[in-house]
Amino acid sequence: MTDEDWNQIANDVQRKLLLYRLRNYAKVRDLEFDLPEFTAAERTHARTLGASIVDAPELQAGLIAALRSQDEDVRKMPPKPYRRLF
After folding, report:
1. Kindly report the CA angle at 47 between 76 and 14, in degrees rounded to 5?
2. Structural domain boundaries in the chain
3. How does pLDDT run across 28-40, given as a tens digit for each residue?
4. Can you give the three-state secondary structure of the chain, one letter per residue?
């Protein structure tokens, strides 16, 4: 593929994403997607990704499954040592 082909693809995807954002702004803003059973960092990650998926519960379920293994990995990590801030 040429650079021009890649630029055309990028422009098309950007146009579609902008249209999606404009059409679904209110739904995304009002969506309450939360996974309180996840660790704090993964919960934030999940909320950010999940809230942008509207009208697709099967896609949200797939996201939950994908992030669950990541959350389990985070839980297995040893805690970071406490550091004084001052």
Report:
1. 120
2. 32-76
3. 888 888 899 999 8
4. CCHHHHHHHHHHHHHHHHHHHHHHHHHHHHCCCCCCCCCHHHHHHHHHHHHCCCCCHHHHHHHHHHHHHHHHHHHHCCCCCCCCCC
